[in-house]
Design brief:
Helix content is 37%, strand content 27%. It is of the alpha/beta class. The strands form 2 sheets. A 6-stranded mixed sheet has the order 6-7-8-3-9-10, with helices on both faces. The N and C termini lie far apart (35 Å).
């Protein structure tokens, strides 16, 4: 069943036309990835979905599995999107360095008031990322890059989203940590979360994706299943070193 339908989305930053008539469909339970070169418009799409930038034109329709009612995302603030069941783990992690791991996680649940549920979800995040439990009293500034990325993903999960968006989760990580992060993405998806993944590591992203879109200069150049694009000669030449 369709969760998010984007049709002919356009985003401008002043005179820069960053997103050009992008159309994307996300079904419940899928991992969908947007790949492309730096500056191709991937993060602009995800920020428009989250309400962090305004779209110039196009439509974004979200159907929550909570009530099956289609809702337009245009013109709504980010907080309203979180309440609808959408969460973003942003590029650059953006954790609060002076707060502890546990305080950062609690911040992710700011729209909630179910104290026991929040405590249970913190334990759930710790089950996904045992290293965070070991460091739960440490300040964010003392964590490694990989641990900060885990914390950013965990914080996004704390709002109990139905659609989890991850913006460059592998950026700057060592290869062994990249494998770990993508294994966690598979696990989260297997537990019922729909995931939209923006990623420069095309090989890792396409391996986990049910469906993928290649963005080129702000527009969709190719789309298909993850497996189809992994085996596409154009994708191999441009993004996989083929």
């Amino acid at each position: 069943m369709e969760m998010l339908k984007i049709e002919k989305l356009n985003v401008n930053y002043g005179a820069i036309h960053a997103v050009r008539d992008v159309s994307v469909n996300i079904e419940r339970g899928e991992i969908v990835t947007l790949i492309g070169a730096n500056g191709a418009g991937k993060s602009s799409v995800i920020r428009a979905i989250m309400g962090l930038v305004k779209s110039r034109s196009g439509t974004m329709t979200y159907t929550s599995p909570r009530d099956n009612k289609p809702v337009s995302l245009q013109g709504k603030p980010a907080e309203a999107h979180v309440k609808l069941g959408i969460a973003l783990s942003p590029e650059g992690r953006r954790i609060l360095p002076q707060l502890t791991v546990e305080e950062n996680l609690a911040l992710g649940a700011y729209i909630r008031d179910d104290v026991k549920g929040i405590a249970d979800d913190i334990e759930y995040v710790y089950s996904l990322f045992p290293r965070l439990k070991e460091r739960h009293r440490q300040k964010g500034s003392t964590l490694s890059g990989g641990e900060q990325q885990m914390l950013a993903v965990g914080r996004a999960l704390m709002s109990r989203p139905d659609l989890l968006m991850l913006d460059e989760p592998s950026l700057g990580l060592a290869p062994i940590l990249v494998e770990e992060v993508f294994e966690i993405i598979r696990t989260i998806n297997s537990q019922g979360k729909t995931i939209l993944l923006v990623e420069q590591n095309a090989f890792a992203a396409l391996k986990v994706a049910h469906k993928a879109y290649v963005l080129e200069v702000g527009a969709v150049g190719l789309s298909g299943t993850g497996a189809e694009l992994l085996n596409n000669p154009k994708v191999q030449a441009a993004y996989l070193g083929g």
